[in-house]
User: What shape does this take?
Amino acid sequence: MDIKQIAKDTGKTLTSYLTYQAVRVVMHQLRELDPPCGYWFNAFATSHDLQNGEAFIAALLEERSDLAIRVMTVRQHLADEIAEYLPEMLTTGMQQANMEHRRTHLERITQISSTDLVGESESSQDLESKGDQSS
Assistant: This one.
């Protein structure tokens, strides 16, 4: 397991996600303040892959550098705002999610179905009635 590579990949994924969130913020702003620009930006965002945030920014820089710079500014602001909370939230959230999955799994594998209970109940009654007959 290459922890450095995992961290690098996680950072890239987080950067792309923050780019996506920044695009949403900018699009919302543009819809209110400059609807024609908002319409253009929506069409651009729809026709370009937001899965790779860096490729999206590069393509936007070629078309509308003002919007690309705005998205990068919002993205940086979002990163700055969540940086202090992220490590604890990630660790705590992961622990809670794992605990919930384990609890659900344990409940599922230890749960006795109602048909099993009915079958066991009938077997117990059969054994009791056979015991009563033999005495």
About this structure: The chain has six helices and no strands. The helical segments are 3-33, 35-47, 53-63, 65-83, 86-110, 114-134. Residues 3-33 form the longest helix (31 residues).
